[in-house]
Amino acid sequence: MGTRILQVLLILFIQLWFSTAQNDDATSLRALKDVWENTPPNWDDNSDPCSGWDGITCKNSRVTSITLASMGLTGSLTGDIGQLSELQILDLSYNKGLTGSLIPAIGNLKNLTNLILVNCGFSGPLPDTLGNLENLIFMSLNSNGFIGRIPPSIGNMKNLYWLDLADNRLTGGIPVSSGSTPGLDMLIHTKHFHFGGNMLSGTIPQRLFNSNMTLIHLLFENNQLTGTIPSTLGLVKSLEVIRLDKNFLTGNVPSNINNLTGVFEMFLANNQLTGPVPNLTGLNVLNYLDLSNNTFDPSGVPSWFSTLQSLTTLKMYRTSLVGQLPAALFSIPQLQNVDLSYNRLNGTLDIGSSHSNQLQQVNLQSNEIGDFRQRNQYNIELILVGNPICTETGTTDKFCSLPTNTTSTYLTPPNNCLPTPCSSSGQVSSPNCICAYPYTGNLFLRAPSFSDLGNSSIYESLRNAMMNSFRRSQLPVDTVSLSNPTKNLDDYLVINLQVFPSGDERFNRTGILGIGFSLSNQTFKPPAAFGPYFFIGENYDFLLGASSGGGHKSSNTGIIVGSAVGGWVLVALLVLTGIYAFRQKGRAEKPTHESSPFALWDTTGGSGAVPQLKGTKAFSFEELNKYTNNFSESNSIGTGGYGTVYRGSLPNGQLIAIKRAKQGSTQGGLEFKTEIELLSRVHHKNLVSLVGFCFDQGEQMLVYEFIVNGTVKDSLSGRSGIRLDWTRRLRIALGAAKGLQYLHDLADPPIIHRDVKTNNILLDERLVAKVADFGLSKSLGDANRTHVTTQVKGTMGYMDPEYYMTQQLTEKSDVYSFGVVLLELITARNPIEKGKYIVRELKQAMDKSKELYNLHEVLDPTIGLTTQLKGLERFVDVALRCVEETGDRRPTMSDVVKEIESIMELAGLNPNAESASNSADYPSKGSEHPYTNDNLFAYSGDQFPPRLVPK
Are 274 and 252 in contact (CB under 8 A)? Predict the structure, then answer.
């Protein structure tokens, strides 16, 4: 009998061991589920992920695929992901709520072939353990917030086909192999190097390229790369797209670059290249060429221009071209756009009578053309402004003014039907005239080969290719719609995409997951003319219902084994319950900081009652001490009058800035409370976010989101290393204005900032402006109130003179300060400098009868290096209206926003587009952090009053 019992126990033990081994995946996924929010509802229906969890695919009870694009997931990756040893595909794209770092345990997934984390919220350095993924074929980590160097270990991925690390915050050089250390030069089978929109620095190593490579896309645009273009680039004859633009490359373009006869698009613009204009004879399939804004040797018009018979776009503005243009250039069959402005072209312009029937624009602004042979009436947009010929009158008059900037309004037309009016919110009439809830997002095309954004036939080819791809993948798509093609600051073509469901007005979850994966995994291949692309999808809020498909049912054996395990688990739970109850009893006897974070709030020391918060976290001192490595000196990022600012990292990897008041100081107690209260209830993309605060152990600390690019003041002064051209300054002005408009018009009750200045406007990783520092802010309390009578506080040079004289604070006081900010944006001068006041100085220098109001002497000389200052006069007009002496003569912030949007449209910019995904000129070294608020000119009513009133 005893032997029989031992046999049964042994069998149960073996079953338990086997079950545990097989259910490690289930345990790991359930652990991830516990830290993620917004997981599919059917993940709660049963505990076995392989029994129908949406987005999970299994084989023999092992998880092989996780595809959860556009699900609105929030949380972080934990070490549990590393336990899924059979995982082959991990796609978490378009979930901005997924934050924290990419943990080293990712390197345990030795069977992983596809790692796709496009447009999530991940940050921190890339782990070296990525190099362990030797079976990886597809890696897309673009559009996150990753920092630090590119791990050299990536060179170990011998099977890698697609490598996309673009639009992050990566720094350092490009790693190449040396001895036993791997590097990117070892990736001879990789077709795609996508590294644009980072902060990569140093030279492009000669060893990066070799003749064994099969690379087709080389994208290094918008970084900080220096040195020369390596001659070894000419060895990679498989190349089709080259983007090295917006860097700091110098020297000659290698003469062997014309060996790359398969190149379709070549972007070398906005560098510091010198020497002769490169000879591109033989690049017979070249469609798009941009060599603009380089300092080539003055030379005649290259003879090879007219030999490039596939050319659609030729851009060589500011390249020192001299001489007369040959008429043969304009007869290239597919030519659409020519920009040779700001050169020294001269002689007689002859476009010829047989020019390309696709030709749309020829920009020859600011050359030395003295005559124009007009053979017939041209339908092209010809720009001759700034040439000697425009000093005469005659037939060229219509070409001697700048054209009105128009944007393409393309929209996929209805398919032989009348669009249906849709009454429900979120519903859209599809091209088949059916009201439905589409899945939406934007396609970003990194190197299109055409310039005609209004060409309907080319968009139809894109639609057809996409629909064919969706049908091959058996996705439930009825049709797709494309609209609003625009060029962004990175010269990407951005197209809005709407995907409509088939057979119903909504997609189910499985349909969205399939479409998201098709676009994130590059299953859909666009026509060659569109070049490389990436997609940014939006959350889908109209799901038909959770699908029961997508996984594989567990076997009966698994169920039996699970039942056996259940008995053991029950016993274990009883034991754990007892332990848990005992520990909870002990915890209950301790006073907790979380239960009463304001227990010690000093209501008698000038800081008022306990603050009224909305969703702001109260941190304990111990927590922040841990997140900053005991407030170590190495984590200090600045010191100001308030105290010290430390950089920290939350457990989920989110970077934070902790503003710690001086020990024992009660100074700023009221400001401390004000900032907590205000920031906890205002939420706008142009306002800095408050993560939490600490009011514990005598400490006063504010915890902000970490804003990586510092203050606008730092950028204008050159301390940050960020180069702000006219376009970026306009976007910064609009962003800050929208933040203030929100405070004035949408906050309840309205809020007056009271300390608007360039030190309090921060720039995030995409150079989006965020208004910060609410320590001096005042609430109107009642929406019907027009002012608050209060002690005068603010910053000299920015302060409203009417407020100073009357002590009556109004929303127009912020408008005045913002007007000074606008003037500072165009002059890069301090408001008060050597006893001179910026408002008075600009008014005295201004002459409205002259170009740019005769302000050349006071404008920041770096503002117009690469762009025309379109709309600057109107910008100055807005600024001066803002700094009128009395508030009733100033515009509202709402009016200011509308005016800046109008100026941007005049400059050919889309005011609703996102800011630059990155900057080609981010700082290469740190600067004082914006949160220090070290304000030497702060005025709090008890100092000698500043002389602010302009004469």
Answer: yes
State pTM to two decimals. Answer: 0.60
Let me know: does 290 contact 245? Beta carbons within 8 Å: yes
Alpha-carbon dihedral of residues 729, 730, 736, 737, nearest 10 degrees? Answer: 150
The answer to whether the beta carbons of residues 531 and 448 sit under 8 Å apart is: yes
pLDDT-derived band of residue 773, with 50, 70 and 90 as boundaries?
A: confident
Closest CA to 353 of 325, 373, 383: 373
Q: What is the distance between the alpha carbons of residues 332 and 308, in angstroms, rounded to a whole number?
A: 8
CA atoms within 13 A on the CB side of 450: 19
CA angle 426, 912, 728 (to 5 degrees): 155
Q: Alpha-carbon distance 224 to 245, whole Å? A: 10
Q: Assign 52 a pLDDT band (cuts: 50, 70, 90).
A: confident
C-alpha–C-alpha distance, residues 246 and 59, integer Å: 47
**β-pair partners for 788:** 809
What is the rounded radius of gyration, in angstroms, for the C-alpha atoms of the chain? 31
Contact 690, 676 (CB under 8 A): yes
Tens digits of per-residue pLDDT, 731-742?
Answer: 999 999 999 999
Specify burial of residue 374 (Cβ count, 10 A radius: 0-12, 13-18, 19+): middle
pLDDT at 785: 58
Domains defined for the chain, CATH in brackets: 617-705 (3.30.200.20), 712-939 (1.10.510.10)
Distance from the Cα of residue 702 to its chain's centroid: 26
pLDDT tens across 66-86, in order?
999 999 999 999 888 989 999
- Per-residue pLDDT tens over the stretch 581-613: 445 544 444 444 443 444 445 444 444 455 556
**Is residue 764 among the annotated active site residues?**
no
> Considering only CA atoms, which of 746, 767, 754, 730 is closest in space to residue 897?
730
**Which tokens is 574 given?**
């009883």
- Residue type for 930, please? P
Least Cα distance to 342 among 364, 314, 327 occurs for 364
- Beta strand pairing call for 751-752 and 435-436: unpaired
Place of tokens 């095309």: 445
pLDDT band for 426, please (50, 70, 90 cuts).
Answer: confident
Residues 6+ positions from 271 with CB-CB distance below 8 Å? 244, 245, 246, 247, 248, 249, 250, 293, 294
Check pLDDT > 60 for residue 914: no
Q: Which of 755, 773, 800, 814 is catalytic?
A: 755
Q: Which residues contact 822 (CB under 8 A, 6 or more apart)?
A: 733, 875, 878, 879, 882
Token digits of residue 910: 């889309």
Chain centroid, CA 693 distance in Å: 27
The percent of residues in the chain predicted with pLDDT above 90, rounded, is: 49
Q: Which residue has the higher pLDDT, 843 or 708?
A: 843
- Three-state SS annotation for 234-282: HHCCCCCEEECCCCEEEECCCHHHHHCCCCCEEECCCCEECCCCCCCCC
Please report how the helices 726-741 and 893-906 are oriented relative to each other, as an axis angle in degrees rounded to 10.
Answer: 160
**Do 656 and 691 touch, CB atoms closer than 8 A?**
yes
Rounded to whole angstroms, how far apart are CA atoms 219 and 206? 16
3-state secondary structure of 318: coil
Q: What is the mean pLDDT of the chain?
A: 82
* Cβ 239 vs Cβ 218: under 8 Å: yes
687 neighbors 704 (Cβ within 8 angstroms): no
